[in-house]
Design a protein that fits this description.
Residues 82-292 form the ABC transmembrane type-1 domain. The chain is mainly α. The chain is 72% helix and 1% strand. The protein contains 13 helices and 2 strands. The chain has helices at 3-25, 30-50, 67-72, 76-107, 114-122, 129-139, 146-153, 168-193, 198-205, 210-238, 242-247, 259-268, 273-303; strands spanning 53-54, 62-63. The protein has a two-stranded antiparallel sheet. The longest helix has 32 residues, at 76-107. The chain starts with a helix and ends with a helix.
Length: 304
C-alpha cells in the first residue's frame, strides 16, 4: 500500500470516528438547546410576530404589518424618549468612567488603610437598584430630604431635584454615578495591577514626569480595560429602568421618560402590546449596532 493510500484510509477512519463521536454525544447538547430555544429564541420570534399586529390586551388582534414601525418614526413622544435616553446614557457613561479611572489610580497607590478605603468605596454597587432608588428618593424630598438640608447649611438655595423637569435627568445620573462608579474602578484597578513595571523604570531613568508616564505608558496599556468598562457601562446605562421608574415613574410629566419607561408604559399601562413589541425590536437593533461599534473599537485598541 502506497503512502498516499495509507493516508487516505487513515483520514476516512478518523472522519468515521468523528461522526460516531458526534452521534454518541449529540444528546448531551439537547437539554441546553431546548433551554436556549425556550428562553431566548422563542420570545424573540414571538415579539417579531406580535409587532406586526394592532393588539391591545383583552381585545382582538388586527394584522397591520409594518404600521407599528412606521408609527414609531412619527411618534413625537418616542422621539423625545430616544433623545432623553441618549442624554442620560452619555452622562451615565462618561462621568463614572472619569471618576472610576481617577479612583483606580488613587487606590493603586500605597497609603494607610488602603484596603478599608477600597471596601468602603465599593459598597454602593452591592446594593440592589430598587433599594438604592428608595433611599435616594427620600434624600431628594424638597422639604424633608437631607440633601436640601445640607445645601441650606452651606448657604445654598434648596433644589427641586427630581421634582423639576430641568434637573431630573442630571439628578438621576447622580444616582447612577454613585451606584456604578465602583464597578468601573474595580475593572480599571484590575488592569493597573496587571501592568508591567519595566516601562515605568525605563521612563524614570529617562527623566519622564508622572504625567508623561501616565500619558504615554499607563493610558495606552490600560486602553483594553477601559474599553471593556466602557462597553459594560454603556449597556447598563441604556437598559436602566428600575432606578428611574422607582424614583420618578418617568416624571415630572414626561421629563425622565426614557425608551425603557416608554416601552413599559405602552405594554403594561396602555396594554398596547403590538406597539410595545415594535419598540422592543427597534431598541434591540439600536443596542446591537452600538455593541458592534464598541466591540469593533475594542478590537482596534487591541491591535494597536
Amino acid at each position: 500500500m502506497s503512502q498516499a493510500t495509507a493516508a487516505s484510509v487513515a483520514g476516512r477512519a478518523a472522519a468515521k470516528r468523528r461522526r460516531n463521536y458526534a452521534r454518541r454525544y449529540v444528546w448531551f447538547v439537547v437539554p441546553a438547546a431546548v433551554v436556549i430555544i425556550a428562553v431566548i429564541l422563542f420570545p424573540w420570534i414571538f415579539t417579531i410576530y406580535v409587532s406586526a399586529f394592532d393588539w391591545r390586551l383583552g381585545g382582538e388582534r388586527r394584522w397591520v404589518g409594518f404600521a407599528n414601525y412606521e408609527q414609531l418614526f412619527t411618534d413625537a413622544r418616542f422621539g423625545w424618549a430616544v433623545l432623553r435616553t441618549i442624554f442620560y446614557t452619555s452622562l451615565a457613561v462618561v462621568l463614572p468612567m472619569l471618576l472610576g479611572l481617577a479612583a483606580a489610580l488613587s487606590f493603586n497607590r500605597k497609603f494607610p488603610l488602603r484596603g478599608l478605603a477600597r471596601t468602603i468605596f465599593i459598597l454602593p454597587m452591592m446594593a440592589t437598584p430598587v433599594a438604592v432608588a428608595l433611599v435616594w428618593t427620600m434624600m431628594f424630598h424638597p422639604q424633608l430630604g437631607v440633601l436640601n438640608w445640607l445645601l441650606v447649611q452651606f448657604g445654598l438655595p434648596p433644589s427641586l431635584w427630581v421634582y423639576s423637569a430641568d434637573t431630573v435627568i442630571p439628578t438621576l445620573v447622580l444616582v447612577e454615578v454613585w451606584h456604578w462608579t465602583p464597578l468601573v474602578m474595580l475593572l480599571i484597578l484590575g488592569g493597573l495591577a496587571s501592568l508591567p513595571i519595566d516601562p515605568y523604570e525605563a521612563a524614570k531613568i529617562d527623566g519622564a514626569s508622572p504625567w508623561q508616564a501616565f500619558r504615554y505608558i499607563t493610558l495606552p496599556l490600560l486602553a483594553p480595560f477601559i474599553v471593556v468598562a466602557l462597553i459594560i457601562r454603556t449597556i447598563d446605562a441604556l437598559k436602566a429602568f428600575d432606578t428611574i421608574y422607582v424614583i420618578t415613574q418617568g416624571g415630572p410629566g414626561q421629563a425622565s421618560e426614557t425608551i425603557n419607561i416608554f416601552l413599559y408604559l405602552q405594554a403594561f399601562a396602555f396594554y398596547n402590546v403590538g406597539y410595545a413589541s415594535a419598540v422592543v425590536m427597534v431598541f434591540f437593533i439600536l443596542i446591537m449596532a452600538l455593541a458592534a461599534l464598541l466591540l469593533w473599537t475594542r478590537e482596534r485598541v487591541r491591535m494597536t
